[in-house]
Each structure stands twice: as C-alpha cells, then as structure tokens.
Design the sequence.
C-alpha cells in the first residue's frame, strides 16, 4: 500500500462513525498533527457510506483517503505508520 504525500496533501477525507473509538483517535491524531481534513459521517450521509464502501471494500470505519491513497479500519498506531509522519505537529 502506497503512503500518502507526507509534506502537504491536497485532499484528506476521513470517513467516520460518530461513536467509533478508532474514528475519534484518527480525528485526534490528525488534529494534533495540524492536518486539515474533511470529516464524512457515514451513519448520516448515504452518499458517504456508498463512497466509503467503494473505496475500501468494507463497512468498517474509519477509512481515510489522502490524495487518492486509502487506509481502512485502522487505529492511531496504524495511521501513524502508514502516514510515516511521527514528527510533532507542524501547526504553530
């Protein structure tokens, strides 16, 4: 699986279920890193659900798409390894 553009991704979308612990971890990780992302709630948006399923082939969340690269059904540790960005937040 190819890693995302580590420097400055142009599009980050996170497909979530609101009561999902892994989804909350993913949002917290992105927030700590200062990464802007679009949050898509698949429980309230049927189009987001369909897109998540098409991208990942599964119904489990979270699913993240970064500039066309997809990681599905992950926790914070997997996201960090996939992103290969363990440096402190770049946000000032």
Sequence:
């Amino acid at each position: 699986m190819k890693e995302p553009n580590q420097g400055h991704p142009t599009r980050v979308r996170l497909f979530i279920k609101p009561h999902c612990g892994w989804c909350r971890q993913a949002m917290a990780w992105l927030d700590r890193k200062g990464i802007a992302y679009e949050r898509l709630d698949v429980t309230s948006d049927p189009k987001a659900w369909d897109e998540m399923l098409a991208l990942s082939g599964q119904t489990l969340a979270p699913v993240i798409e970064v500039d066309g690269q997809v990681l599905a059904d992950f926790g914070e540790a997997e996201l960090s390894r996939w992103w290969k960005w363990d440096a402190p937040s770049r946000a000032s």
Observations:
- The chain has one domain: 12-83.
- Helices lie at 21-33, 46-56, 76-83.
